[in-house]
Write a structure and sequence with these properties.
single chain, 550 residues, alpha/beta, 7-stranded mixed sheet, 5-stranded parallel sheet
């Protein structure tokens, strides 16, 4: 392995971080955040919010039901509570009953309730008709959204979206809660003294901005790296009783919190609220300051998350049974009217990962419309794929390059696979549809040391745009092999380095047959893995986390 300085330089170079940006990347500062007033319409939005507060107008915080929209709503909620403003309500649409977006029925209710200002978070940039309805009825709409605008944008009072035409904001990759944080930054900057808010108070909201930045998988470069880095630091202080209870139930030590604790432990429990029931429970667990309520809500989310796991497991069993009888095709389209719509994104992710191709999964749970989720594999742009389908194939569709959602009629669903395959085979270069593992360097088992781990950790937190460094260990001999866990569904391999010291490598939800062959002790393999420090049970252990076995 290269020496420590060379290793760090190699890892930074592999991530495209130029020499002049390395210090800023390795040592993010809060001061690195851009001026929020560089966002188009920010001044207009801030003044309107101030006027609404002064006039005691009714305000609605309207957010998406996922792990980006909900933390964004908490950011706005906490700000209004801080200035002791009470004339507001939080509205989060129901994933199954209403679906994603700004809804006309909700706006009709807001008109009846004499709402004067509606602020959206993580949605609204495509809601042309709904915004027109609100504005025409005397409700000013401020949209904060990070999704890509379409040709026709809503005529809202103000739009805060770095991706909109005419916005010169330097960082286009903020998530919904990141933009919510910028809005509060701007409000405090302009009116903080008037509201008697101490300078820097808004930094306590970085826990929500950081949580969403990690959970929404936006690129962890630029401002997002700062938000994730300091967000973790605020989360480690454990100021929110609901989060403290959730982590406690999951056996996570908050003082040693990592990005994996957010993405693999916290986010699924928060998302379980909308997948299995009411998204307001996730909002409440984040926003509450009452310890007893926090415990009740955390218990509820843990319970429905366990139910969610069972539902996904049952659906995956059906999927595997069905696919075993089918001819292999370029992508997978599968569904069942009885499948729970809220968990289909998780099912699509599992299918894409296991079968290494894009997956479209649908269900309806008795609804008039079939809804589905899709996940990509390789270089396939899912939104482009759905946009190129024949007219009327889908009722609605949208999302990102590698994750999306769609709805389809009960008649059209029978032609969904055929039409998707036709477009897919026409626009995709098959060579591009393979996902490759990016290896940072080839090293030996002797290099698995705490010193090297500490060098590698300078790049944390990891995520999209800043993947965890992955290493190749060539021609290493497996000394022992075993499955562990209650259901024996996790794999542990042991190796010995040249000094006779044991080196452990583990992976979850895989066994000795999961890598295209049956592994056995004594076998020599090429292992790709990341460094992994476990503090389970209060004992620190350096090990490897298996990525693949070749």
């Amino acid at each position: 392995m290269p020496n420590h300085t060379e290793l760090l330089e190699l890892l930074l170079k592999n991530r495209g971080i130029l020499a002049e940006n390395q210090e800023r990347f390795l040592n993010p500062l809060y001061e690195h955040l851009h001026d929020p007033y560089l966002l188009k319409d920010m001044e207009r939005a801030v003044v309107r919010i101030f006027e609404a507060i002064e006039a005691k107008e009714k305000i609605v915080i309207y957010s998406d039901y996922d792990c980006d929209g909900i933390p964004a709503a908490v950011i706005m909620h906490d700000f209004l509570k801080r200035i002791e403003y009470e004339n507001f309500l939080v509205y989060i649409p129901h994933r199954h009953d209403e679906g994603y977006g700004l809804h006309a029925d909700a706006i009709l209710q807001f008109i009846k309730d004499e709402v004067k200002l509606l602020i959206t978070f993580d949605l609204g940039i495509t809601a042309v008709d709904e915004v027109a309805q609100a504005q025409a009825s005397g409700i000013d709409v401020i949209i904060t959204d990070h999704h890509l605008p379409q040709e026709d944008t809503p005529r809202a009072f103000a739009i805060i979206n770095p991706k909109q035409d005419g916005c010169e904001y330097p960082d286009k990759n903020l998530c919904g809660a990141g933009l919510a944080f910028k809005l509060i930054q701007a409000l405090v900057k302009k009116y903080g003294e008037y509201w008697k808010i101490n300078e820097g108070w808004e930094k306590w909201l970085l826990d929500m901005a950081g949580l969403a930045t990690l959970a929404d998988q936006v690129p962890l470069t630029g401002e997002n790296r700062v938000l994730a880095y300091y967000g973790l630091k605020v989360l480690q202080k454990g100021k929110r009783p609901g989060l403290a209870e959730l982590f406690k139930k999951a056996g996570v030590d908050t003082s040693r919190l990592t990005e994996e604790d957010i993405t693999f432990t916290l986010a699924p429990r928060l998302n379980a609220a909308s997948r299995m029931g009411d998204p307001m429970r996730a909002f409440e667990v984040l926003a509450t300051t009452d310890v007893t309520e926090a415990r009740t809500l955390a218990d509820h989310l843990a319970k429905i998350n366990d139910e969610r796991k069972l539902v996904v497991a049952h659906i995956m069993k059906d999927v595997k049974k069905t696919l075993s009888k089918r001819e292999e095709k370029s992508l997978i389209v599968i569904g069942n009217p009885a499948w729970r719509v809220g968990v289909l994104g998780l099912v699509a992710s599992k299918i894409a990962e296991e079968y290494k191709r894009p997956a479209f999964v649908w269900g309806s749970e008795g609804s008039d419309v079939i809804r589905g989720s899709c996940r990509g594999w390789g270089e396939v742009n899912l939104v482009s794929l759905m946009s190129n389908m024949p007219e009327n194939s889908l009722i609605e569709w949208g999302g990102h390059i590698s994750a999306g959602g769609f709805s389809v009629s009960h008649t059209e669903v029978h032609f969904l696979e055929e039409r998707l395959l036709s477009v897919f085979d026409g626009i995709v270069d098959k060579k591009e549809s393979n996902q490759e593992i990016n290896i940072d360097a080839s090293i030996t088992l002797d290099d698995v040391t705490m010193e090297n781990y500490n060098i590698i950790e300078k790049l944390a937190p990891y995520g999209t745009g800043n993947p965890k460094p992955t290493f190749m260990f060539e021609d290493v001999a497996v000394t022992t092999i075993k499955e562990f866990g209650k259901e024996k569904n996790h794999l542990e391999l042991m190796f010995t380095n040249s000094k006779g010291r044991p080196v452990k490598a583990i992976t979850f939800f895989k066994d000795r047959t999961s890598f295209g062959r049956s592994l056995s002790a004594g076998e020599r393999i090429n292992l790709t893995a990341t460094f992994d420090k476990s503090t389970f049970g209060g004992r620190t252990e350096l090990r490897l986390r298996i990525v693949d076995i070749l």
